[in-house]
Structure formats: structure tokens, C-alpha cells
Write a structure and sequence with these properties.
Helix content is 39%, strand content 8%. By secondary structure, it is an alpha/beta fold. It has a six-stranded mixed sheet, with helices on both faces. Strand 3 (214-220) and strand 4 (226-231) form a beta hairpin.
Length: 358
């Protein structure tokens, strides 16, 4: 049943009790309540009880009969089950391990020494003698650091990122329906993923000061060759024009596809169909799926740090920076430069000579 999970309420437990009294099976009760059968069976198993274990009426003879078996059969009562579930909910997600002063002192000391929560938890699991006094997971340490009771300690300042509030694990929910003809990166062929084929690019926009202008960058996945164009605005029209200016100089075998993010500046990338270039879009907030482009943009930021105003940046100045980046030897290329690797691939394409996009 495709529905959001929710806990059983008192009314549903009453229906379970009535169904058991009528002799119904757990599956039939689940069908009547529109629940999963495993939910009903688990509820009965966890919250069933024996009156002889709690009722005072059975206690005088319980010691005599305890060795010969139980005095009463297992029963399910909605009131008892609901009380047990409420007690478990109240006591759940409690970081009991941090009630120990020894544990608190150890974690705080290690955080101040520059250790991450994963290091603190892993040391204990590995069995080292100088480890934490209790077994604890790194997630519990994070929750304890960001809990309201520990805000006065400001322990988040010792974390790697030092964020005051914790981010959601899977990021924000976004909608990609605004992109026409969107093709997900999950449908991208394997020859692009393993970099075995030349001519597949990754694109992104480097934003200038106050988000008024920027630079569109394209990086070839196999050779790590960078091409860039200045943008007077961050509109989708200017972005696709910059892409066309880069790719129209290349032979078809050197411009096979491009992978982009879901930014609004890429909403007109389908116009690259005139070059027979399919456009693939990454999953929202998954920049590592364009890792080659992101790393190259980081190198570009060494020349143009964040906060730089690109208003006075000319294409000639940008070309000089791109040329310097493309002439750095890289270990992944066997210490060849991206420009040398890119030229070699072009020579393999029937010795085609083209003007390289700076």
C-alpha cells in the first residue's frame, strides 16, 4: 500500500481487539483497517499481555504455579497496548549514553582536538584502549551536539564545516518539471560514465558578485579540457548562446553530449539539438555527479575568487586564464596537460584541424 507511514491510533487498536475477540485473522483485520498485515501482526506480538503477570488477583498463587507454566493465556487489550506504545514513544530517541559525565568529557575533549564524530565513534568500535567509555554512533554524537540543551557549548564550531544548524540529509525538495525535454542523468549511457568515449561535456555557471553576471564553463570529461564564456546576465538565453559559441566550432565527434544541473539558466539547453547533442540533467543538489566540472571551477576560482565582479572581465582576459588552466599537467592524464590531451583526441578524429575554444 503506497501511503505515508503513521502510527496506530487508539481507535484502530480497539478495532484490533474486537477483531481478535471475533476470531478474525491478522490479515483480515489489516484489510479492514487498510493497513499492512505485518503492522497488525507486529502490534499484536509487541503489545499482547498476560493478566496473571500484572493482576493482583493471581499473585498469591503465582509463586506456586510459576514453575508449571503461565496461569492465563496471552490477551490483547487496546487500552494496555496504547499505554505501552505511548511509553515507548516517550522514551525513544533519548541519548542515554550522554548522561555519563565521563562520556561527555571524552567527546568534548576529542572534538577540541580536531576529531570528527566519525573518528570518535570509530575508535570505540575498533576496540582501542583510549576510546570512548561507551559505544556510540556518529549520528548520536551529531544529534547531541545540535540538541537544544547543548547549544550553549557551541560544539558545532569544532566540526569540519562549523555550521550553526544542521542541514537535511537529502537536501531540499525541488521540482524539475520546469525543464522542457528533461533527460535524467540516470539514463546517461555507460560509455559517458566510464569516460571511455571522447566528446562528452559537463557544464555549469560560475556566478559573479551579487548574481548579476557570470561565466559559463564547459569541461570535456575525458581530457579535462576547459572552455568558458563570459555572461552579461544569468538568463537561459545568454547561457545557451554561450554553449552554442563553444560547440559550433567542434566536429560532431567532439561534441556528443553535455551534462548540466537543474538551474534556471539551463532551461533552454534543449536548443542544442541542432548540434545533435543530448542534454542530461543531474539529480537536484547532487553536484558530485558533475565532479569534473566542479573541480575545474574550483581551479578557476583561484584566479577569480568568490565575490569578484565580472562586469569588467573581458573575454580576452578570461581566455588567458583558461589557457593557463588547460596547460597544467594532471596526474589523471599521465601528466599530460588538458590542451595536449584534447589536441591528441582531435588528431585521432581523421586529423581534423579546428580552432580550439578558449
Amino acid at each position: 500500500m503506497d501511503q505515508e507511514y503513521r502510527h496506530l491510533c487508539l481507535d484502530e487498536r480497539i478495532e484490533i481487539e474486537k477483531g481478535l475477540e471475533r476470531g478474525e485473522s491478522g490479515r483480515s483485520i489489516a484489510k479492514r483497517l487498510n493497513r499492512n498485515p505485518s503492522t497488525i501482526c507486529r502490534e499484536i506480538r509487541r503489545n499482547a499481555w498476560r493478566p496473571s503477570n500484572t493482576s493482583a488477583a493471581y499473585r498469591p498463587v503465582k509463586l506456586y504455579w510459576c514453575r508449571r507454566g503461565h496461569l492465563t493465556q496471552m490477551e490483547y487489550r487496546a487500552s494496555v497496548a496504547h499505554h505501552r506504545a505511548a511509553s515507548r514513544a516517550q522514551n525513544s530517541h533519548q541519548m542515554i549514553v550522554f548522561t555519563s559525565d565521563e562520556m561527555v568529557d571524552y567527546v568534548v575533549t576529542r572534538l577540541r582536538d580536531g576529531w570528527t564524530p566519525a573518528m570518535i565513534a570509530g575508535r570505540r568500535q575498533a576496540g582501542f584502549s583510549d576510546c570512548a567509555p561507551h559505544r556510540v554512533s556518529h549520528e548520536t554524537i551529531y544529534r547531541w551536539i545540535y540538541s537544544k540543551d547543548q547549544q550553549h557549548r557551541r560544539l558545532f564550531e569544532y566540526l569540519v564545516r562549523g555550521r550553526k544548524t544542521r542541514r537535511h540529509k537529502h537536501g531540499r525538495r525541488v521540482h524539475s518539471s520546469g525543464i522542457r525535454y528533461r533527460i535524467s542523468i540516470s539514463q546517461r549511457p555507460c560509455e559517458i560514465d566510464d569516460r571511455s568515449q571522447f566528446g562528452h561535456w559537463e557544464g555549469d555557471t560560475v556566478v559573479g558578485r551579487a548574481h548579476k553576471n557570470g561565466i559559463h564553463t564547459e569541461v570535456e570529461r575525458t581530457t579535462r579540457f576547459l572552455a568558458a564564456r563570459t555572461l552579461t546576465s544569468l538568463t537561459s538565453h545568454d547561457t545557451v548562446d554561450a554553449q552554442k559559441d563553444i560547440f559550433h566550432r567542434l566536429p560532431p565527434e567532439a561534441a556528443r553530449s553535455v551534462t548540466l544541473d537543474n538551474g534556471s539558466e539551463n532551461h533552454r539547453a534543449h536548443e542544442l539539438d541542432e548540434y545533435a547533442m543530448p542534454v542530461y540533467y543531474c539529480h537536484p543538489y547532487c553536484s558530485w555527479e558533475r565532479g569534473t566540472n566542479e573541480n575545474t571551477n574550483g581551479v578557476l576560482r583561484r584566479y577569480l575568487p568568490k565575490g569578484t565582479d565580472f562586469t569588467d572581465l573581458t573575454q580576452h582576459d578570461l581566455d588567458e586564464i583558461v589557457t593557463a588552466i588547460n596547460n597544467r599537467p594532471l596526474k589523471c592524464l599521465g601528466w599530460y596537460t588538458p590542451a595536449e590531451a584534447f589536441n591528441h583526441q582531435l588528431e585521432l578524429l581523421a586529423n581534423v584541424t579546428v580552432a580550439l575554444p578558449n
